[in-house]
Structure formats: structure tokens, C-alpha cells
Amino acid sequence: MELYSVALQVPHHISIHGGLHPSRVITVSGTVPENAQRFHINLCTERDIAFHFNPRFDQNSVVCNTQIQGIWGTEERKLPVNMPFRRGQSFTVAITCEADHYSVSVDDQHLLDYTHRLPELQTIVHLEMGGDFELSKVSV
Ligand code: GAL
């Protein structure tokens, strides 16, 4: 595990050395500003976005998707009833890579599973974060 805990700039990129594999956990801690619209945490290959995790405060939902060769697939959304993020609050997102899906928890509460659409896990070698949040800690 590699731990980064200084005040980090957003957008931010970290290489995932060795790529993903089942049981590997990515954690991202940060704070949502009062005026936030959206932010994202992306797990990427050299070409594609395998997993786009996208809390949207303008729609009070969390959107997940995959982008292959520049084209977005079908969105998977969490309805507002399960929206775990709040403007003005800090959070920790933990994304556990399992054999056939990502399991995402927020502040130790399970939020969603997302079945792999790019299952060659070792090719997922980049963690990219951007949008409206303050990033305080990352581990890959
Ligand atoms: C688009 C948006 C992208 C991404 C995508 C996910 O509408 O512009 O940033 O979130 O949805 O499906």
C-alpha cells in the first residue's frame, strides 16, 4: 500500500503500480465544498475509464459508468435516497476491487457494487480524481 496524506491538488493523478487485482483497495478521503456541483474518481487503463464514480450534487445522485474508446456506456445511478455525500462534509470512499465487480463504501457503509466492464484488471493502472472536492488522503 502506498499512502499519500499531504494536502493534495485536484485534479490529481496517481499511478496504481501493478494494476488492480481482487482484494486491492483504493481509498480517497476529502471534503465537499459548499458550492460543489460534481466530482469524480476514475480508475483508468492507458486508454479507457474502467470505472467512473461521479457524485453529483446538482442531481443529488451518484453516477457510475465506463468509457471505452471515448464513448460512455450506460449509466448506473444511485437514487437520492442513498446519496451519502453532503455539501460541506468530509468523506472517505473505499473502492474494493473484487473478481467481478467493484464494491464501493462511503464512511464504512456499503453504497454500491459495479460489475466490471473492463475485466482485465491488471491493465487498470491510473487513479484520476477531479471536480469539486478537496482531497486530503489517498491510498492505492
Ligand atoms: C456525462 C458527463 C461526464 C460523465 C458521464 C457519465 O454526461 O459529461 O462527465 O459523468 O456523463 O455517464
UniProtKB/TrEMBL annotation:
GO terms for biological process: negative regulation of CD4-positive, alpha-beta T cell proliferation; negative regulation of type II interferon production; positive regulation of gene expression. Residues 12-140 form the Galectin domain. One of its GO terms (cellular component) is cytosol. It comes from the Eukaryota. Keywords: Lectin. The keyword Nucleotide-binding does not apply. One of its GO terms (molecular function) is carbohydrate binding. The keyword ATP-binding does not apply. PANTHER family: GALECTIN, GALECTIN-9C. This is Galectin. The lineage of its organism: Eukaryota, Metazoa, Chordata, Craniata, Vertebrata.
